[in-house]
Amino acid sequence: MEDVPLEHGSLEHLLPPSWKTLVTAWLAEDTPSFDYGGFVVGSDPRKATLWGKSGGIVAGGRPFVDEIFRQCDCTVEWHVKEGSHIELRGHGGAPKGKMAVATVTGPTRGLLLGERVALNTLARCSGVASMTRGMLVNLRAAGYRGVLAGTRKTTPGFRLVEKYGMMVGGADAHRHDLSSMIMLKDNHVWSKGSITNAVRAAKSVGGFSLKVEVEVQSEAEADEAIEAGADVVMLGNFTGGGDVDIVSTSAIHQGVPHVDFSLKVEH
């Protein structure tokens, strides 16, 4: 398979300075008041094993899981690389049907404070990466050599994680938000009266650095978009075939099965 971003550096270096505040908010949501379970277990130092329990790709361990446990005064040692497949055949002496992907060390209370938030994040991100990788493999097997891309149909508050998962899986994340690229869909065109009017308005403020993408429903609309100066033409709900450069779909991140993980404290 062709290069994916992981082969050229750490995707963590793409994240904005504010991303760690997301982790703080997730932990605050899960423990807004007293931590009664933490009172029960105390703060004695312990180790816990993070198990992968279903097939898929590990994604989101670095950086998200690392930061979750860091904020709970714990450290994570990973036994697999980001983007690795989970091996369920007793890999590394593990029982058949699961794989030890990491060891987490810290106060017992910290381990359990971060447990559910970490598992939810890892399961979701890994699910997106796994679905993405599977679809990319199928596209290549069918002879398609273009780009697979996601969409903006992401979970509110969780977009960064899901876009990260798409990239670990080998897809293009597409635009991240309304400021990343100007995409003109049917409502924009109807509101402005025509594709030409919409593109001209977008070009007047987007400058040279922002591409304009237009969704069209027919070849005639595609011709109009190109003539108006659109940089990208999205063929909305067209049949397959033809010289398509990019396949963009929400199927790689919307409603995808999660990868199953668990965290077990050693005793």
From TrEMBL:
<dbReference type="GO" id="GO:0005737">
    <property type="term" value="C:cytoplasm"/>
</dbReference>
<dbReference type="GO" id="GO:0009435">
    <property type="term" value="P:NAD+ biosynthetic process"/>
</dbReference>
<dbReference type="GO" id="GO:0004514">
    <property type="term" value="F:nicotinate-nucleotide diphosphorylase (carboxylating) activity"/>
</dbReference>
<dbReference type="InterPro" id="IPR004393">
    <property type="entry name" value="NadC"/>
</dbReference>
<dbReference type="InterPro" id="IPR013785">
    <property type="entry name" value="Aldolase_TIM"/>
</dbReference>
<keyword id="KW-0808">Transferase</keyword>
<comment type="pathway">
    <text>Cofactor biosynthesis; NAD(+) biosynthesis; nicotinate D-ribonucleotide from quinolinate: step 1/1.</text>
</comment>
<keyword id="KW-0328">Glycosyltransferase</keyword>
<dbReference type="GO" id="GO:0034213">
    <property type="term" value="P:quinolinate catabolic process"/>
</dbReference>
<dbReference type="InterPro" id="IPR022412">
    <property type="entry name" value="Quinolinate_PRibosylTrfase_N"/>
</dbReference>
<comment type="subunit">
    <text>Hexamer formed by 3 homodimers.</text>
</comment>
<dbReference type="Pfam" id="PF02749">
    <property type="entry name" value="QRPTase_N"/>
</dbReference>
<feature type="domain" description="Quinolinate phosphoribosyl transferase N-terminal">
    <location>
        <begin position="45"/>
        <end position="126"/>
    </location>
</feature>
<comment type="similarity">
    <text>Belongs to the NadC/ModD family.</text>
</comment>
<dbReference type="InterPro" id="IPR027277">
    <property type="entry name" value="NadC/ModD"/>
</dbReference>
<comment type="function">
    <text>Involved in the catabolism of quinolinic acid (QA).</text>
</comment>
<keyword id="KW-0662">Pyridine nucleotide biosynthesis</keyword>
<protein>
    <recommendedName>
        <fullName>Nicotinate-nucleotide pyrophosphorylase [carboxylating]</fullName>
        <ecNumber>2.4.2.19</ecNumber>
    </recommendedName>
</protein>
<feature type="domain" description="Quinolinate phosphoribosyl transferase C-terminal">
    <location>
        <begin position="128"/>
        <end position="239"/>
    </location>
</feature>
<dbReference type="InterPro" id="IPR002638">
    <property type="entry name" value="Quinolinate_PRibosylTrfase_C"/>
</dbReference>
<dbReference type="InterPro" id="IPR036068">
    <property type="entry name" value="Nicotinate_pribotase-like_C"/>
</dbReference>
<dbReference type="Pfam" id="PF01729">
    <property type="entry name" value="QRPTase_C"/>
</dbReference>
<dbReference type="InterPro" id="IPR037128">
    <property type="entry name" value="Quinolinate_PRibosylTase_N_sf"/>
</dbReference>
